[in-house]
Design goal:
The structure holds two protein chains of two kinds. Helix content of chain A is about 0%, strand content about 50%. By secondary structure, chain A is mostly beta strands. The N and C termini of chain A lie far apart (about 40 Å). In chain B, strands 2, 4, 5, 6, 9, 10 and 11 form a seven-stranded mixed β-sheet that branches. In chain B, strands 1-3-8-7 form a four-stranded antiparallel β-sheet, with no helix packed on it. In chain B, a hairpin with a 4-residue loop joins β7 and β8. Chain B has no helices and eleven strands. Chain B is globular and about 40 Å long. The chains are: A mainly beta, B mainly beta. The interface between A and B is medium-sized, with 28 and 29 residues.
């Protein structure tokens, strides 16, 4: 079974600064996806960024980038130029690649509450 | 694309009752999954439906059941409600093998 661990329950950062959220995972699968989701008070899970395990290049989406270390099973999220709207819960999630068969379920960590201060 | 919509947004039920939560998937998405998110926790996978058939189930008892309809809508039914069933229930849809999901805003269920 897969597990996802987020060791930082809460973090804070000043507006315009950079913050890194940590995530580690455990799996015996060779191919999979990793995700970061944002959940603001509106409750909707919003996809921030996705990484495919077989791709060595780290994914980036505007101010968001990841540091994917497959051997270490580490998947951290870096937010640059933090904005007040980035304040939310952030969840790291794992999903077995569809080519591996079985249901496509997401396994989530417990989340990190990020507060961006003005 | 119309997104994923869930109803109702909030619901209060009494222990022992039954509840039905509804989800309207994003147009064209043939896969829907349901998750339970307890307060302060990450979402937990309940089950997934693909083309109206169950396609995987998490560690939830049989009193949690679901349906998926040809019009991409789906239901989560919970019988014999328990206090621990109080949670946010999230619906997520996608195309199978798309490698990602679109989530709704959830239904907050409170069991008293």
């Amino acid at each position: 079974a897969q597990t996802v661990t987020q060791s930082q329950p809460e973090m804070s950062v000043q507006e315009a600064e950079t913050v890194t959220l940590s995530c580690t995972y455990d799996t015996s699968e060779s191919n999979y996806y990793l995700f970061w989701y944002k959940q603001p008070p509106s409750r909707q899970m919003i996809l921030v960024i996705r990484q495919e395990a077989y791709k060595q290049q780290n994914a980036t989406e505007n101010r968001f980038s990841v540091n994917f270390q497959k051997a270490a099973k580490s998947f951290s999220l870096k937010i640059s130029d933090s904005q007040l709207g980035d304040t939310a819960m952030y969840f790291c999630a794992f999903m077995k690649h569809p080519s591996q068969g079985g249901s496509e379920k997401l396994v989530f960590g417990k989340g990190t509450k990020l507060t961006v201060n003005p | 694309e119309t997104g994923v919509t869930q109803s109702p947004t909030h619901l209060i039920k009494t222990r022992g009752q039954q509840v039905t939560l509804r989800c309207s998937s994003q147009s064209g998405h043939n896969t829907v999954s349901w998750y339970q998110q307890a307060l302060g926790q990450g979402p937990q996978f309940i089950f997934q439906y693909y083309r109206e058939e169950e396609n995987g189930r998490g560690n939830f008892p049989p009193r949690f059941s679901g349906l998926q309809f040809p019009n991409y809508s789906s239901e989560l039914n919970v019988n014999a409600l328990e206090l621990d069933d109080s949670a946010l229930y999230l619906c997520a849809s996608s195309h199978l093998r798309a490698g990602g999901y679109t989530f709704g805003s959830g239904t907050r269920l409170t069991v008293v």
